[in-house]
Amino acid sequence: MSAACKFCQIVERTLAAQIVFEDEVSLAFLDHRPLFPGHTLLVPRRHCETLSELAAEMVAPLFANVRLLARAVEKAMSADGSFVAINNRVSQSVPHLHVHLVPRRHKDGLRGFFWPRQKYESSEAAARVAEAIRQAIASLQHADM
Questions:
Q1: How far is it, in rounded angstroms, from Cα 87 to Cα 97?
Q2: How many angstroms separate the CA atoms of 137 and 128, rounded?
Q3: Quick one: which of 25, 48, 49, 143 could link to 61 by a disulfide (CB 3.0–4.6 Å)?
Q4: 130 inside domain
Q5: Cβ atoms within 10 A of the Cβ of 112, count?
Q6: How many domains does the chain have?
Q7: How confident is the model over 29-45, as pLDDT tens digits?
Q8: Cα distance between residue 145 and residue 143, in whole Å
Q9: Considering the domain boundaries, does residue 121 fall inside one?
Q10: Residues 98, 100, 106, 142: which is the catalytic one?
Q11: Is 89 left (phi over 0), alpha (psi -120 to 50) or beta?
Q12: Shortest CA distance to 9 belongs to which of 47, 40, 39, 41?
């Protein structure tokens, strides 16, 4: 736990929040500034700032809860679907890993990704990027062994 972290304070019950779910792994509560009613945040109980810092044994149970909550938010809010997202450092208003679960409706005004997209300059450039990512995956998998 981090005493200065607002999400740790919610987990510890020293900061109030509308808690909607909790188990031994994680806790979920309503975002206090929702995109839409029902916008929920799921946080691991143990403090970590980003997805890459989440302990390996916590990934499966955390994402099982993400799956459960995505379904629950859609059902509770009579939504057509949901938006599930994680920010890692950039745009992360609280430096504690959290998953956004936002109910969505067709034509709700939310426009997916808000940044301009661009094409690769060539298929060779795309291939170089793909190879760099494959090499990074291989080195990370080797380091985890």
A1: 8
A2: 14
A3: 25
A4: no
A5: 6
A6: 1
A7: 999 888 888 999 999 99
A8: 6
A9: no
A10: 98
A11: left
A12: 47
Q: Does residue 35 fall inside a structural domain?
A: yes
For residue 42, give the DSSP letter. E
Bridge-based pairing of strands 99-104 and 40-44 is antiparallel
Polymer length in residues for the chain: 145
Task: Give the residue from 67, 52, 58 showing the smallest Cα distance to 21.
Answer: 67
pLDDT digits (tens, 9 = 90+) for 42-75: 999 999 999 999 999 999 999 999 999 999 999 9
Active site residue 100: no
Interacting residues of 9 by C-beta distance below 8 A, sequence separation 6+: 3, 15
Q: Can you give the CATH number for the domain in which 42 is found?
A: 3.30.428.10
* Residue 103 domain boundaries: 6-116
Any domain includes 1: no
- Per-residue pLDDT tens digits for 74-116: 999 989 999 999 998 888 889 999 999 998 999 888 776 655 5
Per the listing, tokens 């020293």 go with: 14
HSE (CB half, 13 Å, CA atoms) of 69? 30
